[in-house]
Design goal:
Layout lengths: L16 H7 L2 H4 L3 H17 L5 H19 L12 H13 L1 H5 L6 H37 L4 E6 L2 E7 H26 L1 E2 L15 H7 L4 E2 L3 H6 L2 H28 L6 E3 L17 H24 L14 H23 L1 E3 L1 H10 L4 H10 L4 H18 L8 H7 L7 H5 L1 H7 L8 H15 L1
Parallel strand pairs: 3-4
Antiparallel strand pairs: 1-2, 5-6
This protein binds arginine.
Arginine binds next to helix 7.
Length: 459
């Protein structure tokens, strides 16, 4: 016999099997089940306080939902595609258990405000899990930065050796990015944390509801103030996915660097074996699979952002079934982000830095040329002129196959009479670093101060 839908009274023929499958969401939205129950219990409690549900009805709903929750947790709940989604599955089960009280639960409510509430409750919990994971990764990076606050490496622009920096300073750049990422998650949470329930299908309800009470029961900071907006906009999910995309993009950049640094041609670092794989044909290979996959998965999350923002575009008010498509991209964004953060925090603890290789690279690239230019400026030469003097000196050194620091004083003085013996201090990588001693600079003392500041903020 054809199963009756909650809405089938209006229809003269049943939907086809294909349409049923096509329109159903239970296969994925069952993930919202616990939040759906939480929302329903708050709604029922509010209806009871408003005099819409009796004591007996509320007690039955609470009892029935407690049973259903344990069935779900035990994996014993029979999810039925013919009941379309998580909401109707749970409601039907409740009614089977407690009869008419179960049918009264949906008073003054629609699946439209129900699902919007469920997603917000779910996403809030995910954000609350993600922020500490970002913190853990920051701690791994800070530990590495601490260990290498003095380790010289070439800083690059255009991937050409530019100026010496410390490896610690380089790691701190990612700590800054991740700090903003965590901040963005917190900002987004504020807008996620508002209650749609009470909007009902789109226009509100004729029952004497108390939305602020429901909001309080569910830990929402406020209610959504327009019923049409409450059931239809998914901007909070788009915003979250944008914030998640930025985390992934930041980690993709770091991945790209780790991959490059681990290449034998560069050899700046090694990644612990547990994050790498071998080749089935080339016995010598050790491949940085984890960072490569993170770089790849960043595309997947940015794709979800595109999916969600396109989903919203051109939807008229209020709710449209299009919105059912919000869940899979959002769920996958959260899963990908959480796994990536976890694995990354561990991977960064398994990085071995090779300071000799980094130092050798600094010495090959005339990384202290700017230091020589600054030195001449401090002796009175205008910067543009000193830039020219140093360019000529670099050209000469390059021709000789040596570093600036290898040129004798008399050769250097041939380029500018302002150059004296004290020049050699600024021509070493350590001298170069030490002079960048201001907030945000790469001097080891500044790197240590920045680490301390971040550790204190992390608490
Ligand atoms: N499964 C639906 C969704 O995810 C629930 C809301 C459906 N509402 C409706 N009137 N068809 O959006």
């Amino acid at each position: 016999m054809q199963e009756q839908h909650a809405w089938s009274g209006r229809f003269s023929e049943p939907v086809s099997e294909l349409v049923k499958k096509y329109t159903a969401s239970v296969n994925f939205d069952l993930r919202l089940a616990e939040f759906d129950i939480e929302g329903s219990l708050a709604h029922a409690t509010m209806l009871h306080k408003a005099g819409v549900l009796s004591d007996a009805d509320l007690a039955a709903i609470r009892r029935g939902m407690a049973d259903i929750l344990s069935e779900i947790r035990a994996g014993e709940f029979d999810w039925r595609v013919d009941l379309e989604d998580v909401h109707m599955n749970i409601e039907r089960r409740l009614t089977d258990k407690i009869g008419d009280a179960g049918k009264r639960l949906h008073t003054g409510r629609s699946r439209n405000d129900q699902v919007a509430t469920d997603i917000r409750l779910w996403l809030r919990a995910q954000i609350d899990a993600i922020v500490p994971l970002i913190g853990e990764l920051k701690t791994s990076l800070l530990d590495l930065a601490d260990e290498h606050a003095d380790t010289v490496m070439p800083g690059f622009t255009h991937l050409q050796v530019a100026q010496p920096v410390t490896f610690g300073h380089h790691m701190l750049a990612y700590v800054e990015m991740l700090s903003r990422d965590a901040e963005r998650m917190g900002d987004c949470r504020r807008r996620v944390n508002r209650l749609p329930l009470g909007a009902a299908a789109l226009a509100g309800t004729t029952f004497p509801i108390d939305r602020h009470y429901t909001a309080e029961l569910l830990g929402f900071d406020d209610v959504c103030h327009n019923s049409l907006d409450a059931v239809s906009d998914r901007d909070f999910a788009i915003e979250f996915t944008a914030a998640a995309s930025l985390v992934m993009v930041h980690l993709s950049r770091l991945s790209e660097e780790l991959i490059l640094w681990m290449s034998p041609r560069v050899g700046f670092i090694d990644i612990a074996d547990r994050f790498c794989t071998g080749s089935s044909i080339m016995p010598q290979k050790k491949n940085p699979d984890v960072p490569e996959l993170v770089r790849g998965k960043s595309g997947r999350v940015v794709g979800h952002l595109m999916a969600l923002i396109t989903l919203m575009k051109a939807q008229p008010l209020a709710y449209n079934k299009d919105n059912q498509e919000d869940k899979e991209p959002l769920f996958d964004t959260v899963d990908t982000l959480i796994d990536t953060l976890r694995i990354y925090a561990d991977m960064m603890r398994g990085i071995t830095v090779k300071p000799e290789a980094m130092r050798a690279a600094v010495l090959q690239g005339f990384a202290t040329a700017t230091d020589l230019a600054d030195y001449l400026v401090k002796k009175g030469l205008p910067f543009r002129d000193s830039h020219e003097v140093v360019a000529l000196a670099v050209r000469h050194a390059e021709g000789q196959g040596v570093d600036l620091a290898d040129l004798s004083l008399s050769v250097l003085q041939g380029f500018s009479a302002l150059i004296a013996e004290d020049v050699y201090v600024v021509l070493t990588p350590e001298g170069s670093l030490a002079q960048r001693d201001h907030v945000g600079g790469t001097a080891p003392a500044q790197v240590r101060a920045a680490i301390a500041r971040h550790r204190q903020l992390l608490g």
